[in-house]
Amino acid sequence: MKLLIIEDETALSEMMQGVLREAGFVVETATNCAEALEKIDMYEYDCILLDLMLPDGNGFTILHHLSEQGRASKVIITSAKGSVEDKVKGLDLGADDYLPKPFHLSELLARVRSLLRRGNKGAKEIEVGNVRLNPDDRSAIVAGKPLSLLHKEYHILYYFLTRPERVIDKQALAEAVWGDHADQSDNFNFVYQQVANLKRKLRDAGANIQIQAVYGFGYKLTEK
């Protein structure tokens, strides 16, 4: 699951990132409206944590944009603006929850998990060839047998299975699975290693799909 924290308070943002990443989420951040809108237009997020008071505007602008674009991201407002009017306006504009500051990080994590469970309840299984993923419990099945995957391996496989027969740019894959951390490396060795491990596991399990390298660009998932 990929989250976006829109928060201009550096210390708070870092604490939120820490607890969410420790829980296994891919986390990206933005510190103002312009940066947030740019990221929202470029990437898909499962959940957005939105502060209403930002240096170059307010969170309502972002809620308007999400609504106009028809984005399915879940939104939790995390704001010190505690008036009933702000809460009602945010919910009316499409926010799913409202968590006033200050809040405990444990409550933030619980709210995110609860919202994502509601959003994914009854989510359809993804199946390509003899490989099947169940988003509800993040399980993987190959030829009817469970496949044990590490956290990043599952997210990589999910990304490929939702884009079969499409050439995937290695930069896009890195940003989707590692979030902002992808920008902190000057090479893609961490991507190559994880993809190689996943390819080996799929091959050993008898999968009839394969992840092929596309020279100079990235990868492509195909059925054998």
Secondary-structure map:
Elements (H helix, E strand, L loop, with lengths): L1 E5 L3 H13 L3 E5 L2 H10 L4 E4 L2 E2 L2 E2 H11 L4 E6 L4 H9 L4 E4 L4 H16 L5 E3 L2 E4 L4 E4 L2 E2 L4 H11 L5 E3 H9 L10 H16 L4 E6 L3 E6 L1
Parallel strand pairs: 1-2, 1-3, 3-6, 6-7
Antiparallel strand pairs: 4-5, 8-9, 9-10, 10-11, 12-14, 13-14
Provide a short characterization of the protein structure.
With 224 residues, this protein is of the alpha/beta class.
CATH architecture classification name of the largest domain: 3-Layer(aba) Sandwich
CATH topology of the largest domain: Rossmann fold
Sequence of secondary-structure elements: EHEHEEEHEHEHEEEEHEHHEE
Helix content: 40-55%
CATH class category label of the largest domain: Alpha Beta
Alpha-carbon distance between the termini? Answer: 28 Å
Q: How many domains in all?
A: 2
Order the strands across the largest sheet as they lie in space. 2-1-3-6-7
Helix segment tally = 8
Going by CATH, what is the homologous superfamily of the largest domain? Response regulator
Approximate shape: elongated
Question: In percent terms, what proportion of residues is strand?
Answer: 25-35%
Overall description:
With 224 residues, the chain is of the alpha/beta class. The protein has helices at residues 10-22, 33-42, 59-69, 84-92, 105-120, 151-161, 170-178, 189-204; strands at residues 2-6, 26-30, 47-50, 53-54, 57-58, 74-79, 97-100, 126-128, 131-134, 139-142, 145-146, 167-169, 209-214, 218-223. Strands 2-1-3-6-7 form a 5-stranded parallel beta sheet, sandwiched between helices. A 4-stranded antiparallel beta sheet has the order 8-9-10-11, with helices on one face. It has a 3-stranded antiparallel beta sheet with strand order 12-14-13. Strand 10 (139-142) and strand 11 form a beta hairpin. The longest helix is centred in the middle third of the chain and has 16 residues, at 105-120. The model has no long low-confidence stretch (mean pLDDT 87).
